[in-house]
Amino acid sequence: MDMASSRHVLLRLLVSALVLALFVLPAQADVKRYQFDIVMSNVSRLCHEKTMVTVNGSYPGPTIYAREGDRVIVNVTNHVKYNMTIHWHGLKQRRNGWADGPAYVTQCPIQSGASYAYDFNVTGQRGTLWWHAHIAWLRATVHGAIVILPDRGVPYPFPKPDAEAEIILGEWWHADVEAVEKQGRTLGMAPNTSDAHTINGKPGPLSPCSEKHTYALQVQWGKTYLLRIINAAVNDELFFSIAGHTMMVVEIDATYTKPFVSSTIQLSPGQTTNVLVRADQRPGRYFMAVKPFNDVQVPVDNKTATAILQYAGVPTSVIPALPQLMPATNSTGYVTAFHDRLRSLNSARYPADVPRTVDRHLLYTIGLNIDPCETCLNGSRLAASLNNITFVMPRVALLQAHYGGARGVFTADFPDRPPARFNYTGVPLTAGLGTSLGTRLSKIAYNSTVELVLQDTNLLSVESHPFHLHGHNFFVVGRGVGNFDPSKDPAKYNLVDPPERNTVGVPAGGWTAIRFRADNPGVWFLHCHLEVHTSWGLKMAFLMEDGNGPGESVLPPPKDLPKC
Ligand code: C2O
Q1: pLDDT tens across 105-128, in order?
Q2: What ligand 1 atom has the least distance to the C-alpha of 503?
Q3: Staple partner for 54: which of 41, 95, 124, 419, CB 3.0–4.6 Å?
Q4: How far is the CA of 423 from the centre of ligand 1 (A)?
């Protein structure tokens, strides 16, 4: 090759590299980087000031914005005295449990002074999810939104909104939440209920000292807004309404739904709902309101939080009206009807891939129990169990133990069925069924289809429980009151367009049936998303086995994975 032609080859290489850089690289996924500093911050609400744990000093914390297909790297640096982990609620984290975040399930906590980079891909998901601390009760103040936009050039399957806003619902305690949890544990009783509900961290003008603590959404007449609503409350299931306006539900838990109109939506801790709202009423100021849903006799924070839908040009001296038609706090009927309207979009582009056949049938009973406790107030403490097992957190992370083949950390013998059949939802039982403590996992073969029926019981009391599965979405194929009947109820399942989600409410004194495919190897947490119940042991974990093919096993752990 002479000089001229080798130069020619070089030039051509250079040109093609440039073309590659210009046209190929931008089409590839972006890397979105965030720095989360866990710090103590002074925050005041309702005439009280307290020092609490936040991310980067903000409450709620920063929103993570990504696009479907992106890689996201969030470096978390812990500057507080508490151990910390962050969970990316609803992200599937395929083969990558290392980035999932529940303490002692997938990782050891990030200790004071240490950092850990959560590094994950957002594959095949778009919509609203959220992130939160996943250790003790720290998620009360450490949480924020995750907004995943559709891939470039891919429209929403609903009319394009003129603007979007995140609406994060939360709970505020005057006291330190770790102290609230600890007090409940030491006494063996239910911890104190919260002092207020919040909308984007603010209780609103119906609460004292709230002049500065009101969230207002500015709207222009005639425009349509996409609200990304997140229930980040610790223990309360919630209703959300906007005075004078209806909402069109278009997405739940980052999956598109068949659109329907509702004046109130209900969402439980862990769940998200996207709605379209058109600012088409008489220009004014309208309250958005949040209040609890609670249909049993357990104590709940019954305060209403408000925020303002503010039409452009309307003076702030105008006093807003409250929603007229919010359901009663104990309105089981409203919630049942609302959930019956939820359907997957199930379009050609977004099909509902519902497992038609089931390889593994599971039935888990949800129970409350009273365990002996010498140091507690009444000599006993409240606890909770699944199939009569109160889950005990290990001292090292389950995923690490599984991946490294460590013995003695857990057993893989969680029972597929409750030890004894009884009239689950009959007359109140006194919790004498013989519960036991254990770190027991259920082993599921790779790619098998699973049906899990979560059955509430009347042990001590029936109660509604939002259950969250990590690492997967599932289809809610059935739901009912009373005892699940395996001979009759499956005939009524919706296997065509059931709602697809990551968190589902089990009705008080009823059951919910979910189906999913175990196509994500790793250790995945299943728990009630009411933190009070999670701390009582209402949780377990699945050990989803590796497959044999390439891309069917747990990825190697990152180098900076925290040590216990
Ligand atoms: Cu949103 Cu295991 O949590």
Answers
A1: 999 999 999 999 999 999 999 999
A2: 1
A3: 41
A4: 30
| pTM for this model (two decimals) | 0.94
**Is 43 within 8 Å of 167 (Cβ atoms)?**
no
- Cβ–Cβ under 8 Å, residues 362 and 453: yes
Residues with CB under 6 A from ligand 1: 87, 89, 102, 132, 134, 270, 468, 470, 525, 527, 529
Helical H segments across 234-276, by residue range: none
Do residue 410 and residue 453 come from a single domain?
Answer: yes
Atom of ligand 1 nearest to the CA of 139: 1
Q: How far apart are CA 242 and CA 247, in angstroms?
A: 8
Q: In this structure, are 85 and 181 located in the same domain?
A: no
**Residue 128 Cα to ligand 1 middle (Å):** 15
Determine the distance separating the centroid of ligand 1 and the alpha carbon of 86, expressed in angstroms. Answer: 10
Atom of ligand 1 minimally distant from the CA of 130:
1
The range of the structural domain enclosing residue 404 comes to 360-544
In this predicted model, what pLDDT tens digit does every residue of 149-162 receive, in sequence order?
999 999 999 999 99
Within-domain flag for 4: no
More confident residue, 554 or 3: 554
Of 136, 152, 168, which residue constitutes the final position of a domain?
152
Task: Yes or no: say if 165 and 247 are a contact pair by the CB < 8 Å rule.
Answer: no
Which is the closest atom of ligand 1 to the Cα of 132? 1
The per-residue pLDDT for range 3-53, each reduced to its tens digit, is: 445 555 555 555 555 544 444 444 567 999 999 999 999 999 999 999 999
Judgement on whether residues 340 and 405 belong to the same structural domain of the protein: no
Side chain identity at residue 455, one-letter code: Q
